[in-house]
Amino acid sequence: MEIVAAINRTKYDVFRWRYELSIPKKLVMAVGMAALTGLVAQISFHIPITPVPITGQTFAVLLAGVLLGKRWGGVSLGIYGGLGVIGLPWFAGWSSGIGVLTGATGGYLIGFIFAAIFLGHFTDKYVRSRSFLSMFVLMLFANFVLIHGPGLLWLNSFAYEAWPGASALGLGPYEERGLLALLMVGTIPFVVGDIVKAAAAAVIVRGVTPKQAYNGEVDKDKWANWRIP
User: Does a structural domain hold residue 205?
Assistant: First the structure.
């Protein structure tokens, strides 16, 4: 019991410390999370029907808001996108430049910021969100709505009928496209992998986050009555 209590106290102290850090120190942590996102982005490979690579970066994105909070989680992904645009080669495949942001994957990069802000908000506001099941559901929403939503909207403006393998799906000119064709290019190939990454990230969140209030959470007086799986 003493070991469990010590672990729980450490988790509380770390998140309380993170919340109370000075702005320069929070900025350093945001840059560090951006660097981690750039590193796991290199776990990347392409499939023929889509210009959007399968990468590990969404795993880091899903953790960014949890580990840094709403504001600085969003800042960290903004730093990731901004430095990549001005030339730091840490986008997938060690790429960089404005062409990545304006290219087919630009919408997903914008969605990363939304996802980090969303998850950071729930982590800091609700103790209950730090359970595995709650966080898994939140991460699925962040991934498939807040990341894939902007990604698909942006992707739909590109002439993906010219991509290798796209003709096999019947992807014709812009005016002939349907929602299913768009999903086949921008979401469906990534569903299984994204669910696995969300589950893995939710397991980590369950393990590292304190199950007590460190930030005046709105449900701080209720958490003790819950069994949080």
Answer: yes
Q: What's the rounded Cα separation, in Å, for the pair 178 and 169?
A: 11
Please give the structure tokens belonging to residue 31.
Answer: 């840059």
Terminus-to-terminus CA distance in the chain, angstroms? Answer: 19
The token pair that represents 178 in the structure block: 């349907």
Sign of dihedral through CA atoms 156, 158, 162, 163? negative
Q: What is the rounded CA–CA span in Å between residue 36 and residue 49? A: 28
The domain tally of the chain equals 1
Reduce the DSSP state of residue 164 to 3 states and report it.
coil
- Residue 86: give the domain boundaries: 2-216
Residue type for position 44: S
Domain at 40, CATH number: 1.10.1760.20
Quick: pLDDT tens for 106-134. 999 999 999 999 999 999 999 999 999 99
Residue 36 lies in a domain: yes
Cβ count within 10 A of residue 8: 13
In a domain, 30, yes or no: yes
| Model confidence, pTM | 0.88
